[in-house]
TrEMBL record:
The chain crosses the membrane at residues 12-29, 35-55, 67-88, 100-120, 132-154, 166-185, 235-254, 275-295. It comes from Bordetella flabilis. Keywords: Membrane, Transmembrane, Transmembrane helix. InterPro entries: Na+/solute_symporter_sf, Put_Na-Bile_cotransptr. This is Bile acid:sodium symporter. Gene3D superfamilies: 1.20.1530.20. The keyword Manganese does not apply. GO terms for cellular component: plasma membrane. The lineage of its organism: Bacteria, Pseudomonadati, Pseudomonadota, Betaproteobacteria, Burkholderiales.
Amino acid sequence: MNRITRFLPDRFTLYLITTVVIASFLPAHGKGLPAFNAITDIAVGLLFFLHGARLSREAIVAGITHWRLHSLIFSVTFILFPILGLLLRPVLEPLVTPELYMGVMFLCCLPATVQSAIAFTSMARGNVPAAVCSASASSLLGIFITPLVVGLVVVNASNSPVSFDAVGKIMLQLLLPFVLGQALRRWIGGWVHKRKNLLKIVDQGSILLVVYTAFSEAVNEGLWHNTPLPALAGLVVACAVILALALLATTLLGRAMHFNIPDRITLLFCGSKKSLASGIPMAQVLFAGHAVGAIVLPLMMFHQLQLMVCAMLASRFARRPQGDDGDH
């Protein structure tokens, strides 16, 4: 039974699918849409505030001395992924619509996940302290780097109207609450740590709100009428190809750098994953006035694929003999 459930969507993905279905048949419109946008902004700000209050400063700076591993992870996340998106464009873009491939390019520019990257690294008996440092730093640096990379890569590739002013908007919406949470961590950090379920509710709830709002706007603009079924099938292929190449690249780079197995595992899971939690709020700001629903659809598809594949890989690594962590 466990082998079968590995290939099934996780509960949160089912929530996402349900939200998309609701938005498709009952989209917010008229005066309701600005209200949902305001509620969503508050929820996202609260999410990053709680993350700031929860993440210790020691965790932020831990493992920084392992610069070879971290620099390689960041290079894969913010350089290799966008290059893959650009190089594969002539092959993959014909499989999807131009709007969907713009979303593929956007996901290539995103930072790594935090929770799942660390969870899979821990499950696979990788270098967990390095994973905590790398994934957290990637998420934080992504607030600055992703808008710049999107501006360079997506604008040049698609002529999409992305403004560099979005950097300031993202800092205001995401970084400022995070910094406030860090500043108040001394007084509320313990309280937040004891209420992990609260963070999970806010985390998932804010994403579902953003997805509902984004897809409501897209449905109102005719998303499903303009997205044929062959394009959706092509999107699965495009996401699978990019994920496979990222996993292959991180595996080969880990061996080429002669990392031990725990460090290779950290590189694999932190370098190949893209953040849904950071990506959807960023898309809402970066592509304001654009078809955000089509932009985030590839990210949602990639998110589910990476969870299923990485779960199988982590399980395989976990079965290796104890002490088998050498450079081979």
